[in-house]
Specification:
By secondary structure, the protein is an all-beta fold. The protein is built from no helices and 6 strands.
Length: about 55
């Protein structure tokens, strides 16, 4: 299954939503530093503030 991400501007930051077969569903990963890279398998996401929510999709 391919992994996709949606970036939305929210509260002056960016929220990335990763959709894949990740568990547990709904797990939130806090991002405390700017431009932190989030590695998910072979995919890499750059995020600014906010959090990453793992969902089945």
């Amino acid at each position: 299954m391919k992994l996709s991400a949606e970036a939305n501007t929210q509260a002056g930051g960016i929220t990335l939503v990763a959709r894949s077969k990740c568990a547990p569903i709904g797990k939130k990963t806090d991002i405390s530093i700017p431009e932190q890279l989030i590695y998910h398998g072979t995919h890499r996401f750059a995020a600014r503030k906010q959090h990453v929510v793992c969902q089945m999709g």
